[in-house]
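SAMPLE LOG
Freezer: B-3
Tube label: C17
Construct: single chain, 76 aa
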Amino acid sequence: MKKFSLYTLIGLLFCNVGSAECVEGDCINGQGTYTFASGDKYIGEWKDDKKYGQGTYTFANGDKYVGEWKDDNFIK
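STRUCTURE (predicted):
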């Protein structure tokens, strides 16, 4: 029974990791849309696999940040 619980837990963890993905465009160097396992979504520019330039980050709760990004961080 312990092995079954462990395998189930590991399987669930891998399922969550697999749900984060680039769903459109180029999310490495270019313009792309990326959805995160948390339900968050980023639509915008990418450079070296990081959010960079103009983009919109929509949180799972509906909040949004629209603006400038550099090295995966938004600029206030």
